Amino acid sequence: MQLGLKKRNGSSKGTFIDDTLAGKTRLNIDHHEDLKKQIRMINLQKQDLVVLASLKPFVQEKIHTIVEQFYRNLEHESSLMSIIETNSSVDRLKKTLLAHIQEMFDGKIDDDFIDKRLKIAHIHFKIGLEPKWYMCAFQDLLLSLIAIINEKIQTKEESLKAIESVTKILSLEQQLVLDAFQQENEKTH
Amino acid sequence: MQLGLKKRNGSSKGTFIDDTLAGKTRLNIDHHEDLKKQIRMINLQKQDLVVLASLKPFVQEKIHTIVEQFYRNLEHESSLMSIIETNSSVDRLKKTLLAHIQEMFDGKIDDDFIDKRLKIAHIHFKIGLEPKWYMCAFQDLLLSLIAIINEKIQTKEESLKAIESVTKILSLEQQLVLDAFQQENEKTH
Ligand code: HEM
Ligand code: HEM
Hints:
The first copy, chain A, is mainly α. Helices cover 70% and strands 2% of the residues of chain A. Chain A contains 7 helices and 2 strands, in the order βααααβααα. A two-stranded parallel ribbon of chain A has the order 1-2. In chain A, α2 (46-74) packs across α7. The longest helix of chain A has 32 residues, at 156-187. The termini of chain A are far apart. Residues 1-12 of chain A have low confidence and may be disordered. Chains A and B meet through α1, α6 and α7 of A and α1, α6 and α7 of B. The complex binds protoporphyrin IX containing FE (2 copies).
């Protein structure tokens, strides 16, 4: 880490935020009018994508712990394990989830990002995953990410900034997924 | 604040968490089997309720700012303002929301808590509020609460503990509401 590159707000304290990553982030949702409004309502800005990209190395380091915890947690509800065994396998899903969580920290929101989430939503709808369990899984994921932030980031201000960006990207994914569920429900009316 | 009462973990540092509030909190969901599992999956414990109750004075102090921000944010999507004007009024809703947000910090989860959330869910379903906007409103609320935590709580560890408890209670409310939406959708099949 080049601390010299990472000063902000005139503070001499090192920050985990690497502004040189800005060029690698992307916020391009020109053809999605509602989504533009959603992103404004949750105040997701380009800088949040830089924060997420800066967090990526920490998430990558801990990704196996996150994924193990994620699946252990689903054992609380046996119907969830049945859904998995019927439609896939824990081993296969661990691999997909591992890739998916890391992609959340690419700092890219574009057509590809949106299309992938809609596809994932439709898969979950088809297997009959209820929104309440979906939300529980997201909260478990958030708690894992907060633990990583606590471990890796020193100051209160920086930790809260990290959590803000993380909750924004998780919220956006939930919005996309729940909207797709909603549309499936309307189709079957 | 009686700092003497508020030592934890053998640390001599004052904490905002007031363990004497434990007697006023309540976690009683005996007749709700799924909800018990949900609460276990998001790791919501009695201590989270104590944390929430300890945060309540800060939330009360800033409640008008939270509520103003909440409604200003809805102006991004004109259909939301139309829904409000057709079914209610901003002034009336501000009063209801003001009471509702404060109740989140009562530290009580029981039949009354659950029934109220189901009733609120049904009202929102009836007025045609889409889940994606609902989720945006929750994220806006979370960002307001993080700002308050940043202002009022000194250390990183305590701030993260506060945020954990806040995200858990918001998640639980989302689970209840989205599950009620889901059941309404199934009814209309
Ligand atoms: C935070 C919540 C979740 C995320 C981010 C997530 C992510 C994913 C991803 C990325 C895929 C792969 C989609 C693809 O093949 O393109 C997937 C598939 C799947 N997920 Fe999830 N998932 C979540 C929650 C759950 C839960 C709670 C269950 C419990 C039943 C579940 C069960 C499945 C199953 C069975 C598949 C495989 C379907 C198939 O292979 O056709 N997921 N999920
Ligand atoms: C965090 C999200 C939200 C919370 C916590 C919340 C909370 C509440 C509460 C406590 C009530 C009163 C229910 C009662 O009368 O018992 C209510 C009613 C209502 N809410 Fe929300 N609300 C949220 C989001 C929204 C949004 C985004 C809209 C935008 C359209 C909205 C529109 C309304 C309307 C129109 C009513 C009144 C219905 C009536 O008077 O019959 N709410 N809400």
